[in-house]
Amino acid sequence: MKKSTYNLITFSLIALAVAAVAVYYLPSVNFFGDETADLLFKDVLLRVFVAALGVFLVATSKCKDLLTPKIKRLPVNLLIILPCIAVALVNFPFSALISGKATVERYELIPLLFIECVAIGVFEETFFRALLTDYVADKLKNTRYNVFWTVIISSAVFAAWHLFNLFAGASVGGTMLQLLYTFLLGAMFSFVTISTGDIWLPIALHAVFDFGGALVSRLGTGEFQDAIFWILTLSVGTLCGVYVFIGLIRLQKKETADRNVQTETDKT
Q1: Same-domain check for residues 37 and 140
Q2: Where in the sequence is the domain holding 29, given as residue range(s)?
Q3: Which of 64, 65, 119, 188 could form an SS bridge with 51, CB 3.0 to 4.6 Å?
């Protein structure tokens, strides 16, 4: 791609994202005359344009292969990330919805919420698990425990990104808690990306996780995080954490072995 074309597309996507931000923060701009629907639609506009920018930047970077779906390896990859899939699924408020402690009131907005969650997943995974992780991995490629440090650094930056929620009115305590679990989620998504070489799988997990967490809080009422929710979250999350840690150890050993072989080859 010519540099002029690249710059034009990049500038256009950034301009559209800025315009979407302007629309988002202008309370006088309404589309449906419905506060919930208008806010959600503005969210979607903003997220979609930023997600498109993320995909474009990855597609024109050296980590562009991550955008190629690994269809033939999909069954194997799904088995590899099975505990991570469980983490995404238990974030749905199944128990509270079944018991009636929580209800979804705006069913007609579910497709719009799902689009927003997918767009968030695309944006955050392309920026943090593709571009940032690739950059950090390249800088640390000749260091000891480079896989672990790459995951730790990229996950820490991903967690810190959520500090911006404070400017949106989030509580300090809630944001600090979010920093912890987004760091852990970031490590999980990094493991999925590195293990499968496919950015679409962490995007899917990210979207499902966010959708489950936002379903009642955005479109319904009630206490959706009941005792069963927390028991499942903590138990599945702990098991997945152990699984991911062991998986990263294996990935680190493989990377170190491959690097040693390459070093010996270069000497000869």
Answers
A1: no
A2: 1-60
A3: 119
